[in-house]
Each structure stands twice: as structure tokens, then as C-alpha cells.
Amino acid sequence: MPERVKKVVLAYSGGLDTSVILRWLQETYRCEVVTFTADLGQGEELEPARRKAELLGVREIFIDDLREEFVRDFVFPMFRANALYEGAYLLGTSIARPLIAKRQIEIARAVGADAVAHGATGKGNDQVRFELSYYALAPDIKVIAPWRVWDLNSRTRLLDYAEQHQIPIARDKRGEAPFSVDANLLHISAEGKILEDPWAEPEEFVYSRTVAPEAAPDTPEYIEVGFERGDPVALDGERLAPAALLARLNGLGGKHGIGRLDLVENRFVGMKSRGVYETPGGTILQAAHRGIESLCLDRGAAHLKDEMMPRYAELIYNGFWFSPERTMLQALIDKSQENVEGVVRLKLYKGTARVVGRRSPKSLYSLAHVTFEEDAVYDQRDADGFIKLNALRLRLAARRDRE
């Protein structure tokens, strides 16, 4: 017998999987199900999810616009760290999960629910990300993960269950989907099915946010991104709210074929997977942020940040956004951004976003010191002692080895 549950909040997309889960929860636990659908800028109409939930007898339906919170409180703090998982992935799916889980827990408290549920499978990372966040925020919450306990373990069984229970099925779901898609304002990802062969190049129809770099405009486009305390605040001199700024950059990056990534990555659960990602605005932002940091960050601070970045990125990828160590790292990263301010000029062209100019009122760049012309601030003779002291251990080792 399943554990007794009186009310559960389900992370609900309105698609086949979560609609089947909704009915399965009602039947298996004989409990009230509350649905929660997050608008993270995935670019889809969300009202159909409401109508389907109503059709399935749901009385409490939450559809929340979280775009601003997503970019301001999750994406931008992550970008202050220049986070890349395994040197390449901008963590578009990973960073969305803690926000969804956070809002789910808030709703559970508001409606008196004693359980939460999600539609992540038992093979992926998302189950871990959701549940680590749930337990960090509500340590006594009950968690239901249907994919780990039911016997509906194939697309055919899901479709059969949907038909038996009169769950509406979109026409394009009647056959096998060519691949699985996850989208939000930061990125869109595709994996599975036709993409499972890591040798096969993705067909062009896999991509939806970016044109092929070969088909991008033949004329480059220049843009300027303004920063304050490490966060982007303006585009071409116009101040924009976080979500609006990222959306604008997505349009520019997509137009120029920027932000495509074909990656074989190591999942937290142990297996390798192949994902195809499009992160046009995020790719531009990361280049711009590194460009302004190159002026404003001291060498020691910059190098320390780069040393910590893989650990920080791994924490987010593995689902530890609400962990004490991520919070500690974030405090250090945010401290480093206090003087990261200024404007970066980028050249967008044929799949690339290249920094071509940067300026800052808090720059550490000193033309007086670096010039090849005559200067009055740097005594080149000082380098003699500097080099000899740094070479001392090398000379001692060389003498020992020679003898």
C-alpha cells in the first residue's frame, strides 16, 4: 500500500507524462492533487495546461510567471561565477530546477499539502535536483516520484493509460517523439531518441532558437552590454529589467547563430548522456562578463574565481543550489563583483560573440604602466630582482640535478 497522502502539489507541464501522473496520483493515493505550472520563459502557451488540469478534476491550479525571479535570483548569480559544467555547459536546465522546487514548497505550505511530486525519470539528473531542493526547504515533506515506482515504463503504456482514463493527447504525441525538449528563458535543450548516437550530427530541425551559423547574416552586428556589480543592466545604453535583457540577447544571439552546443556530459547518477543545447543570450552574456572582469578584477581574485568555478558549476549541475557550500561560494563570488562595472562591446558574427572593446570607471588597467612608450611610473630594473627571486628554487634544483 502506498504511503498515506492527503494533498500533493504536482509540478505540471500539461504534457502527456505529467497528465498521466496527475490521474495516477488521484487513483493511487486517493488524494487531492494541486497543479503548479511555472512560466520560466519557455515560449509556450500555458493556458492549455490550466484547461487540462480542470478537465482532470483539479480544483487548485497555480500558473506562476517566474521569469523575472528566474533571471534575477538564479541566472544572474550563476553568471557572476562564469559557471560552466565540464568546461562547456551553461547549466540552463540545472538552474531552473531549484526555483521550481522552491515555488512548489511555497504552494504546498499555502494550501496545506503534505506531499510534492515531479515527473522526472529515475535515470536523469532532474529527480536529484528537485528532491534535494525539496528536502533543503522542507525536510519533512513527502516526495512522490512516479517514474521510480509505477509500471508505466514505456511510451506505449503511457498512451494506453491516457486513452483508458480519457486524458486528452496532443496529436503530435501519438507517435514516437523524435527527441525530448526542455526550455526556459536561458536555454532550450534536446536529448534522447535520434540524438542518442553521439556520432550522428544533429539535423537542423533539432534547433529552434538559433539559425545555423552558415545561414546567419553576412554582416556583423555590434552591441554594448552595461554591467553593475557584475550583473548586466543595459543593452546599447538602454536599461532593461533582467528578463527583458536576456530575452533581447536571445533574439540577437539566435539571429547570428550563437550559442549552439553538442555535448556528451557526465550525469550525476553515473551515466553519460548526449545533449544538444541552445543558449544564445547566455553565451553572449558570459563573453561580456568575462570581458568586463578582465578590466576590473585583480589577478589573484580572478584566478581564485576560476579555480572555484568548476566546483560551483558542479554543485548547481548536481542539484545543490540550496546547500551551505553553494551559499558560501556565492558570498565569495558576489564579493568579487563589487567593482565589476562598465560597458563591453561585442561583435556578433556567424556563430560567435567576440569581445572587441571594454571600458570601466573602476578599471585596473593602467596605460601608464603597460605602454611601450617611455613612462615615469615603472622602473624596469625592478624586474631583475623579481626574476632572480622567482628563479632561485629552479636554480637550486638544477644545480642539485647536475651534481
Task: Give the secondary structure arrangement, pairings included.
Elements: E1 7-11, H1 16-29, E2 32-39, H2 47-55, E3 61-65, H3 67-80, H4 97-111, E4 115-117, H5 126-137, E5 142-144, H6 155-164, E6 180-183, E7 188-191, E8 221-228, E9 231-235, E10 238-239, H7 242-255, E11 260-266, E12 272-278, H8 280-296, H9 299-318, H10 324-336, E13 342-349, E14 352-359, H11 367-370, H12 382-402
Parallel strand pairs: 1-2, 1-4, 2-3, 4-5
Antiparallel strand pairs: 6-7, 7-12, 8-9, 8-13, 9-10, 11-12, 13-14
Features:
single chain, 403 residues, Argininosuccinate synthetase, chain A, domain 2, 40% helix, alpha/beta, 5-stranded antiparallel sheet, 3 domains, Rossmann fold, 5-stranded parallel sheet
Can you walk me through this structure?
The protein is 40% helix and 19% strand. The protein is an alpha/beta fold. The protein has three domains: 7-67 and 94-177, HUPs (Rossmann fold); 182-359, Argininosuccinate synthetase, chain A, domain 2, CATH 3.90.1260; 367-402. Strand 8 and strand 9 form a beta hairpin. The longest helix is centred in the last third of the chain and has 21 residues, at 382-402.
